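Reviewer 2 asked us to include a model.

Predict the structure of this chain.
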Amino acid sequence: MDAFYDEEAYNRVLVEQVRRHLPEDIDRLIISMHGIPVSHLMPSCRSHNGETKHCIHSHHTPQQRATCYRLHCETSAERLRQDLGLPESKVELVYQSRLGNHEWMRPYFVERVKSFAAEGAKRIAVVCPGFICDCLETLHEIDVEYRHDFMHTGGHQMTYIPCLNSSPELVEALSEIIYKHEKKIMKKLVLATFAIALSGGSIFCTSTRCKPDEGRYAGA
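Predicted model (structure tokens):
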């Protein structure tokens, strides 16, 4: 199955989850995505590291759109902001879980969390839409370590919004997405088989190792 960051079913249950847990009086919603080394991105997407809408505003071919992780993160964050009806000034995209000393996707949450209160964001909420299920990287790194850093640098309140986990709403959304993709795959297989048949070709492998199987399937 392809990436489903832009699937309507997933975004629908995500925004519902955030609304259930989002306090009315927050100063900023922090959207935290798992970071990756910049070297893992396509060369054209490595520049302007730290600008959180760079790939949204850059041209991507269909193939690049399907594989650009930075674009997926930026699109997810912007879609969530719009669905929640929040102004840009109240939402910030950051990246977490950096390892080693080489350059990863920025802004780093571990650095930004110590600056929020000084910037006037003393009440924040944090959501990690890139994680389907809660794990050490959300429950401990975010809700323990970064909470500690935030509260000890002038923060007043931090609300961690749980991941969707095994909620019935997520299960239903994933089922809907899988069924949708399954229909696309089956349609492509049927069309490919039909095209091969029209051209007089065989839908079976022509390798000598596969010929015994060809006879078996042909007689089925």
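The first strand starts at residue 28 and ends at 34. The chain has eight helices and four strands. We have added this to the supplementary material.
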